[in-house]
């Protein structure tokens, strides 16, 4: 038995972890743009990355370390993705780390921002050399890694085990646009003092990513820099696999839900729950088709319960389906039931009322089997176009 309790604060409340964020001059107007995570003991590390073929330089740099390496430092910059920068992008990372005045072991770098520009190495070195590695300022870190995010994204839990021992796990993430994951999405840094074995870290990251980060979509685009990084310094000496798996799932779910709710300009966070599909894979295909559909997203933005767009998208996904078995509901309001249209004026009013909420479910019962999957998406409105039209400026 174990108990998992959400606690207030940032990942710097976890024993042995330190963090902060500063302004290094990458963003205008003195905004925070450079941050770090430091552990006073070496951490086991695991990561899952984007499947975009053009992986950014920080991801390639990570993958050049020997298998099983440990680290004590992560440097994170915003405004510049260091992507499509070739070998020079990796050399720039090495130049930065060799210029720092700290005793670091296998340091890691993570970047987010505009693709196709070289790193401002001198600014980053100057900024990083001003770090105080004894700082505990998770709020600054969360601000420093943001790009188009409307708010910071953090999560923290304490896990109490049956033998009286306990461990903490927390995270900080950024992400609002270019969200359509393949293994991971956005940047997410998860820290724990649990004594999790190295072999469990990869397994549990991949298992939990399927129903969290891999289940969300803002705009159908997959970034070059997507990273989920797990660091474990093991200082608590406490561990239980099932407890850690559930705590990790909660942290990843928290981050995924905050990201999809912060879809650039989004006002609605919607769960697309597909049930009774032919199998789980077909349920996933249909659910993700709904979370990615621009026509569905714009209907959500207009608060229009246009179930025709829902049905059309499911049919276009080519899963096993039959309109005489299909049931579509907005929360508990049924609008289409096995070939019958439940959409008179009264029912449409009830459905429209559901769509005025910030969060709700679109439930699609395919009546074809026992498969199920829930994908998460958001609406798409004018603000998304405005943000991305002006992104580089």
From TrEMBL:
The first-level EC class reads: transferase
**Which reaction is catalysed here?**
L-glutamate + acetyl-CoA = N-acetyl-L-glutamate + CoA + H(+); N(2)-acetyl-L-ornithine + L-glutamate = N-acetyl-L-glutamate + L-ornithine
Signal peptide per UniProt: none
Q: Which GO terms describe its biological process?
A: L-arginine biosynthetic process; ornithine biosynthetic process
Record EC number: 2.3.1.35, 2.3.1.1
Alphabetized InterPro entries for the sequence = Arg_biosynth_ArgJ, ArgJ-like_dom_sf, ArgJ_beta_C
Query: What domain of life?
Result: Bacteria
Q: Name the positions where substrate binds.
A: 147, 174, 185, 264, 388, 393
User: Where does the record place the catalytic residues?
Assistant: 185
Give, as in the UniProt entry, the pathway in which the protein acts. Amino-acid biosynthesis; L-arginine biosynthesis; N(2)-acetyl-L-ornithine from L-glutamate: step 1/4; Amino-acid biosynthesis; L-arginine biosynthesis; L-ornithine and N-acetyl-L-glutamate from L-glutamate and N(2)-acetyl-L-ornithine (cyclic): step 1/1
Entry keyword annotation includes NAD: no
- CDD domains listed in its UniProt record: OAT
Annotated site location: Cleavage: 184-185
- Site entry: Involved in the stabilization of negative charge on the oxyanion by the formation of the oxyanion hole: 112-113
- What Gene3D superfamilies has UniProt attached to this entry? ArgJ beta chain, C-terminal domain (3.10.20.340), L-amino peptidase D-ALA esterase/amidase (3.60.70.12)
A molecular function annotated in GO for this UniProt entry is: L-glutamate N-acetyltransferase activity
Respond yes or no to whether keyword Ligase is given for this record. no
Where in the cell is the protein located?
Cytoplasm
The record's section on Pfam families has: ArgJ (PF01960)
Q: Could you list this entry's UniProt keywords, alphabetically sorted.
A: Acyltransferase, Amino-acid biosynthesis, Arginine biosynthesis, Autocatalytic cleavage, Cytoplasm, Multifunctional enzyme, Transferase
User: Listed GO cellular component terms?
Assistant: cytoplasm
Report the protein's function: Catalyzes two activities which are involved in the cyclic version of arginine biosynthesis: the synthesis of N-acetylglutamate from glutamate and acetyl-CoA as the acetyl donor, and of ornithine by transacetylation between N(2)-acetylornithine and glutamate.
Q: Summarize the subunit comment.
A: Heterotetramer of two alpha and two beta chains.
Its family remark reads: Belongs to the ArgJ family.
What protein am I looking at?
Answer: Arginine biosynthesis bifunctional protein ArgJ
What is the organism field in this record?
A: Halarcobacter anaerophilus
């Amino acid at each position: 038995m174990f108990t998992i309790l959400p606690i207030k604060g940032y990942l710097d409340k976890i024993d042995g972890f330190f963090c902060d964020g500063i302004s290094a001059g990458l963003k205008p107007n003195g905004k925070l743009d450079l941050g770090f995570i430091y552990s006073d003991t070496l951490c086991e590390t695991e990561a899952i990355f984007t499947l975009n073929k053009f992986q950014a330089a920080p991801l390639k740099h990570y993958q050049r370390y020997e298998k099983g390496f440990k680290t004590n430092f992560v440097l994170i910059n915003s405004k510049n993705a260091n992507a499509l920068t070739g070998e020079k992008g990796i050399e720039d990372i090495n130049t930065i780390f060799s210029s720092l005045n700290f005793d670091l072991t296998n340091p890691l770098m993570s970047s987010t921002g505009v693709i196709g520009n070289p790193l401002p190495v001198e600014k980053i070195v100057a900024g990083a050399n001003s770090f105080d590695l004894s700082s505990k300022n998770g709020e600054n870190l969360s601000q420093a890694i943001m790009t188009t995010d409307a708010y910071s994204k953090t999560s923290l839990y304490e896990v109490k085990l049956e033998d009286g021992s306990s461990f903490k796990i927390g995270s900080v993430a950024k992400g609002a646009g270019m969200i359509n994951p393949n293994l991971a999405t956005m940047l997410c840094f998860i820290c724990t003092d649990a004594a999790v074995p190295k072999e469990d870290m990869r397994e549990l990251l991949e298992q939990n990513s399927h129903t969290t980060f891999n289940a969300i979509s803002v705009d159908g685009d997959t970034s070059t820099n997507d990273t989920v990084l797990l660091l474990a310094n093991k200082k608590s000496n406490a561990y239980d696999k099932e407890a850690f798996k559930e705590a990790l799932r909660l942290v990843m779910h928290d981050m995924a839900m905050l990201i999809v709710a912060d879809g650039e300009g989004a006002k609605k966070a919607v769960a697309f729950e597909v049930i009774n599909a032919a199998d789980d894979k077909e349920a996933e295909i249909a659910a993700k088709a709904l979370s990615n559909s621009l026509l569905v997203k714009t209907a959500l933005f207009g608060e229009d319960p246009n179930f025709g767009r829902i049905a059309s998208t499911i049919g276009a996904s080519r899963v096993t389906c039959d309109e005489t078995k299909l049931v579509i509901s907005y929360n508990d309001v049924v609008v289409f039931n096995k070939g019958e249209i439940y959409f008179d004026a009264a029912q449409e009013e009830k459905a429209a009322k559901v769509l005025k909420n910030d969060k709700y479910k679109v439930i699609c019962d395919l009546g074809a089997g026992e498969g199920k999957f829930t994908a998460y998406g958001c609406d798409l409105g004018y603000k998304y176009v405005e943000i991305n039209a002006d992104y580089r400026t």
